[in-house]
Structure formats: C-alpha cells, structure tokens
Amino acid sequence: MLLRRSIRSALQALLVFITVVSAADAAPGDGIKGGVDRVGASASGLGGSLGQIGSQLGSSLGNIGSSLGGSLGNLGDNLGSSLNRFSGNLGVIFSQLGGQYVDPTPGTTVEEGYIQYQGLARRYILIRPETAVAGAPVLVLLHAHGLAPERMANLTRAGRLAADYGTWVYLPEARNGDWNDDPSSIGGADDVGFIGLLVDTQVAARQLDVRRVYAAGYSNGGFMAERLGCQLSSKFAGLATVAATMRDSVAAICNTTHPMPVAAFLGTSDPIVPYNGIPTLTTGPGTTAFWAAQSGCAAGQTTATLLPDVDPTDGTRITLTEYTACPPGVDIRLYTVTGGGHTWPGSIYSSYTLALGRTSFDIDATLELWRVLTPFALPAP
C-alpha cells in the first residue's frame, strides 16, 4: 500500500509539472491560452517512458521476490502490469487532448466540414447520431482559446449528447484558435456572422429543428456564446457557459428578442476568469443577474441549494442558485463551484489541468447544461 501511494504521488507530481508549463501563458479574461498544446505533444514520450518504468519495476521486484520466496515477485508483476496499463491510458488521454482525433462514441458519426464566409474556408466538426432523424435539436459547442474542436469534443465528451439524446453537436473552429467575443475590439474575424451562417445552412440542409438550437462554450467559447445570445438571439433558444462571465462590452450592445434559459458554471478559485469580477468583466452572480433581467425575471428572487457532495475527494462543493420569478420559457441558473478552478465540471480530462484549479465531479456539466436547455424552444413564428 505504501509503495502504491508513493508511485501515485510521483505520477501526480509529474502531471502537476506538465500542467504548470501548459498554463503558463494564461491571462485573466482571455480563457485558456495555447500552453496546453505542449501537453498533447508529450503524449507518446510520456506514455512510453511510464511503460518502460513499469516493465523495469516489475522485473526488479520480480528478482527480489524470487529471493524472498516469490511473494514480492507476484507483487512486482502485478505492479509492472498496472503501470503499463496506466501509461497506455495516459498516452491515449494526452493524444486526445492534443486534438488528434475525436474520441469515438458508439452510435455516433463524426464529420469534418467547411463553410465559405468572407472569402475564407471556415472549419467545423459535427458529431451526430448514426441514424439521422429530421427535426433533431442542435448544440453549437464553442471551444476555449487554443483548443481544437476535437479537443473540445473530448474534453466535454460531447458524443454522449448525440448518442443518448439525438443531438447534432456542431463544434466550429475559431480563426487562430481565438473567438472574437469582444464587440469593442478593433478588427478580428466576424465570428457572429460565421456562426449564424453555419446555423442557417446546416439547419436547412439537414432538416434540423430551427426552434431548438442552443449555444454553449468554455472560457473564450463561453464569452462567445454570450455574444451570440445577445446578437443572434433570434437563432438560439438558450445558452450555457463554463468558466466565462459577462463582458461589459457585450452587455452594452445586448438586444435579445425573447426570454431564454441560461446556465452558468463558475469556480470561485478560477485563476483565469475571477468569480468576483475584474474591470470589464462582471461577477459570477452579476452575470446571471444580467440574463435574468434580460428575460424579465424579478430581481433578487432566488433560491440557493447545496448540491450533493458526490465526490468528497475533489475539494469542491456546488451551490445552485435559481431565479424563481421568471416568465414562461426561462430558467436562469448559476452553478457556483466553491473551490473549483478554470475547468469543466465532470471532465476526466480537466483533472489533468491542475494548474488551472480543481475540477468538480459533483456534476457533469455537459449533461447538466443539456438537461437545463433542452425543454425550451424559440417562440413559434
């Protein structure tokens, strides 16, 4: 038992070193920077090294065990086998985080597509059910800064939405990995126009449900989802954000056409997007208060519920704050992850980004946001 704990501690220390390097470029309000890319590039070498360590350790303990009557030999063989399996799994995890492919989900199909906009071929990934059904709902899922759509799909395990709920999940790609989520910025890509065109063309061509299109995003992608909610509310029935608050520049131009559900997931120990706000970014509670006001909810009428501590070892607790006096078609929720960082709740891959803070496993943000959004639709024409 002591030996197992020592090995686990050594591996965790190695992962901390890797993630500290990967997060070195992060800056408040900008989302995850490109440093995580170096983690994916290290996958093969790290997996192979751990495999060699496992084999050597198994062999060494096997020799010692022979001298001691064979008992330690059995322990060495088992430990070596376990380390080999661990190293293989770790290599797979890092290659997935490197954006090399979308982790396959049974019952789904993955497609890569391009759409011409403003003279550029803009790329997207689609995860859909193997059997296409007319009138299916749509989730536009927006990646964080520097994350490829494939990595976002793996981080969130978005394929489950396609397999279990028949959802068509579109993961568009930002130019140079950065969404133009700030209306006050000079220049930059017209990502609002690009995503609007993607929704229009795909919903029509694939016979999807035009009234049940939703936007969600992580960090930079979460900020972009809020901009879509403000500037393209006629196309989106609701939105969800993880590790993103409200930009003052987006609030200033917000013009929603209908009440909509909003789910926000925010960590109180987020080192990138502070829960208590900074200049140009509002607080976590202020973000949902803004959306509640946009949808006509009575100010300050909320309930707070401490959710079950499903994983007592993750160092987090989640409080759900819900607005209770809202018009029909509205559900405004803030999931405050006490002790949580700049991570996606419930993601096994987020647990390997320790420099960005803790990941809560008390909820699964992917399934939870879908549960909140999917009952709602755009008003009938």
Write the layout of secondary structure elements.
Layout: H1 2-22, H2 37-41, H3 43-67, H4 71-97, E1 108-117, E2 120-129, E3 138-142, H5 149-156, H6 159-165, E4 168-172, H7 191-206, E5 213-218, H8 220-231, E6 238-242, H9 248-253, E7 262-267, H10 284-294, E8 302-306, E9 317-323, E10 332-338, H11 365-373
Helix pairs in contact: 3-4
Strand content: 15-25%
What is the overall pLDDT average? 81
Tell me the structural class. alpha/beta
Task: Assign the CATH architecture of the largest domain.
Answer: 3-Layer(aba) Sandwich
Portion of residues within helices: 25-40%
Q: If helices are DSSP runs of H or I spanning 4 or more residues, what is the number of helices? A: 11
What form results from the Cα inertia axes? Answer: globular
Strand order of the largest sheet: 1-2-4-3-5-6-7-10-9-8
Q: Give the helices and strands as they follow along the chain.
A: HHHHEEEHHEHEHEHEHEEEH
Would you tell me which CATH topology of the largest domain applies? Rossmann fold
Distance between the termini: 65 Å
* Total separate domains: 2
* Biggest sheet character: 10 strands, mixed
Give a short synopsis of this structure.
With 381 residues, this protein is an alpha/beta fold. It is built from 11 helices and 10 strands. The longest helix has 27 residues.
Architecture overview:
The chain is built from eleven helices and ten strands. Helix 3 runs antiparallel to helix 4. A ten-stranded mixed β-sheet has the order 1-2-4-3-5-6-7-10-9-8, with helices on both faces. Helix content is 39%, strand content 17%. The chain starts with a helix and ends in an 8-residue tail after the last helix. The longest helix is centred in the first third of the chain and has 27 residues, at 71-97. It folds into two domains: 2-97, no CATH class; 179-373, Rossmann fold, CATH 3.40.50. The model is unreliable at 1-99 (pLDDT under 50). It has helices at residues 2-22, 37-41, 43-67, 71-97, 149-156, 159-165, 191-206, 220-231, 248-253, 284-294, 365-373, and strands at residues 108-117, 120-129, 138-142, 168-172, 213-218, 238-242, 262-267, 302-306, 317-323, 332-338. By secondary structure, the chain is of the alpha/beta class.
